[in-house]
Every structure is written in C-alpha cells, then in structure tokens.
Amino acid sequence: MTVQRQRLLIDGASVPTFAAHARLHHDRAGQRWVVLAPERMFVLDEAAVEVLQRIDGRRSVASLSAELADSFGAPQAEVETDVIGLLQELADKMVITA
Amino acid sequence: MTSLPPPLALLCELTHRCPLRCVYCSNPLDLEPARREMATREWLGLLDQAAEMGVLQVHLSGGEPTVREDLEQIVGHAARAGLYTNLITSGVMADEARLDALMEAGLEHVQISFQDSKAAGADRISGYPGGLARKLRFARWVTERGLALTVNAVITRHNAARLPAMVDLAVDLGANRLEVANVQYYGWGLLNRAALMPSRDQLADMTEVVEAARRRLTGILQIDFVVPDYYARRPKSCMGGWGRRFVNVTPSGKVLPCHAAETIPGLRFDRVQDRPLAEIWTDNMAFRRYRGVDGLPTACRTCPMHEVDWGGCRCQALALAGSADAMDPTCELSEHHGLVQAMAEEEARLSEDPPLVYRGRRRA
To answer: Are A64 and A55 in contact (CB under 8 A)?
Structure first.
C-alpha cells in the first residue's frame, strides 16, 4: 500500500489533478461551480473556476498559468503565484493532488 | 417560498437494522422494523427527485446500510444522477467483493466509525465483540483501492485519553479525513449520557491534541473536530440551520429536517410515498416550523449570531429546557445554561458509571 505521507508542496512544475474523492461540479440550482468532497462543498470564485477547469492531470502549473496570463492579459509571474496559492490551499484540504 | 434553495445533502437512512448496538446511537429509540423499509424503486425515485431539485451529495447511512442487498443499485443510481455518494458504515459486514461492487457502481467515499483504538473499549461501547478488527480490515480494503476514507472517531469519556492513538490509526490506515466526533446526545446517546459525558479537562486535552495534529498533518489528514456542546459558550449550528441544508429520510420514507426531529411533539412529517420531495422541502409544516429567522426563539431573532448558529438545536432545547421553542441551553445566553454545564460536569465526575443501555428493538 502506498499512501501519501507527506504534505504536497505545489510549485510551477507540479502537475495537479483532483484527488479521487473530489470533483468539479456545476451546481445548477445555485448557478455556480463547486468542488464536491467528503462532507464538504467548496464554492468557487470565478478565478478559481478558470484554474480548476484547466486541470487535467497532464498540464503543469506553469503551463496553465501561462495560458491564463495570456487569456486575461495579466503578467505570468503574478498569475502563477496566485495559481500556486490556490492549489496549495486545495492540496492542504486534500482536494488536489499532484 | 419559491426562492428557497434546495438542500445541499440528502441523508438516506436506508435501514435501522445494524449488527452493532452502540450506546451513543442517534437513531430514535423506536427503531423502524425491516418490514417497513422502503422498496428499492422508492429509494431510486427519491434519488431522482433529489438530483432534480439540485441536491449535491447523498449520504447512505442507517443503521447499517450494507444490510440492504440493493445497496449497489442505490449507489449506482445516485452516481448516475451526478450525486456525490458517501457510504456511512460500521465496516463489519461487507467483504472485499461487496466493496468492489460498490466502487464499480460509483461510490466516491466511505466513512467508518471507530468506537476506540482498543478492542475492549470498542466492544463495550458498540456491544459488538470483535468489531474493531473487522473495521480495521475493511478500512484497509477501502484505502488499498484508492477510495477515500473518513475515520469517524466517536469520543466519550471512556476513550478520550486515546485520541492520540486514534489520530495515529487514521494516518496508518491512509484515511484522508478524521472526524473527532464527540458524541452528540440524541436517541440512545441521550439515554446513556451520564455514562458517556467527558469532563471539561478531557475536552481541553482533546482540543490540544487536535490542534497539534492539525499542524503536524497539514495536507496529510484533514481533521474535523466536533465538540461536546454542553461545555460550549455558543450552540452548534445544528444541521447548518433547520430546513436549510439537509434533508433526512427514514427507512420507511418519512422526511425529516434532522434525525431527532420526531422527538418534537406536534410536528407532522410527510412521506416520500405521499408527496414530492420538493414540495415537502418547501411546504411541510415541520420544515416550516423552525426554518430561518422567523422560526427562532424570540431572544435569538435579535441576536447578532442568529445567522451563524441558527439558534442551535431545537431537539436539544426540547431535551434540556423542556421545549423545542426555547433557546438551546448550550448557549450562554440561555437561562438554563449554568444548569446544563453543571449537569455535564457532575455526570463526567460519576465515580461509578450508570449501566449502559444498548441500542436495539424495544418491546412496548
């Protein structure tokens, strides 16, 4: 059995994916995007939705940050810092793995 | 009430049957017999309605849900409807093949209750000898398959000192989440309260253990801490507010705002078989009775905390203050607050435990 016994630290090279028990879900009734996890629901702001919709288990943080920076005309370094912050928070909540 | 948001989660008490006889069980004292349980198609219909309303999560519970032979069908139906499916189980009944079938059906998460880290303590609280070893085995099957596991560590004064061992147990099992769940005193738990209540010192020790474990295990184990609210200054936000986030369906199909709601006299509940779930949610008198600010006791309505704790728990107000319309006495603003704390402290100090009453069918 291999169980992750260390805190995951996110950086630009990390390739994030959703933990097996967490998923992005469109809440029709609430007209919002949420992450569903055990006994929990995380309501996402627009920026978080943009990040999480790009997570596919293949692309790195740097790659999806570059795309976001391009789409929104923002400096890539700044975007990447924000993306790492968001994903670290979700990794600490056991929602994101890499 | 057309703008009333749907519940976030549906709790299906598929059955009240259970091989365990836990003395803290929050099921009602009058357990529903197997012959009154809803048929498969009725549960499937309920899940369709819930998904249609916008419910996001379904908790399959009981009793012991794996007693139902149609559990795979129910899980599969919920998963296909897009509902996040969580199985709340004792873990003593299902074998590996059953777990595989449940995963195949789309199960997303398993929660297993642990009564102690030591067999003798677990046997005493659950009334099921040998349960701990079976639970550990089942929990390993869950994590070996990469399925998410929550360890629900049920805390009383008898095992509070072994909380560090239960944290270690959750880590060893590869759980993602640990609920340090102090018993909430409803149903059988209320009946046995004097034999279970921890002391204030034990609560302080637990708090320290939880805080240290959270620091040490960030990103490894998510820890939720449910405190014994008799020692709190403010009441818990029971169910996130009456009729706001949760809907509970009993084995026979009664739709309740919470699992203890039937203890409140004068409430009339509808059945899934008789009325659409969406209509019950918005219009049933029991849901309307205590929903929102208007349903709160007068003193709570003007309290700045009223949308934080939603006046606490109506069932606890009934159990401790004698009326579901009273303030929850776990709130320090209640006139009964001092008495409730003194009672808890006194119960925790009992030199000899009152005899435990084990959960089971009672003959009138």
So the answer is: yes
* A-to-B residue pairs, Cβ atoms closer than 8 angstroms: 72
- Nearest chain A residue to B110 by CA distance is A38
| Nearest chain B residue (CA) to A32 | B54
Q: Cα–Cα distance between B312 and B330 in angstroms, integer?
A: 8
Interface of B with A in 179-218 (CB under 8 A): 179, 218
**Does residue A64 lie in a domain region?**
yes
Interface residue A39 vs chain B (CB under 8 A)? yes
**Segment 53-92 of chain B within 8 Å of chain A by CB:** 53-54, 56-57, 82, 84, 86
| Cβ–Cβ under 8 Å, residues B122 and B115 | yes
- Burial class (CB within 10 angstroms; exposed 0-12, middle 13-18, buried 19+) of A13: exposed
Q: Tell me, what's the pLDDT at B363?
A: 59
What are B138-148's pLDDT values in tens digits? 999 999 999 99
The CATH number of the domain holding residue A63 is 1.10.10.1150
Q: In chain A, how many domains are there?
A: 1
pLDDT of residue A2: 42
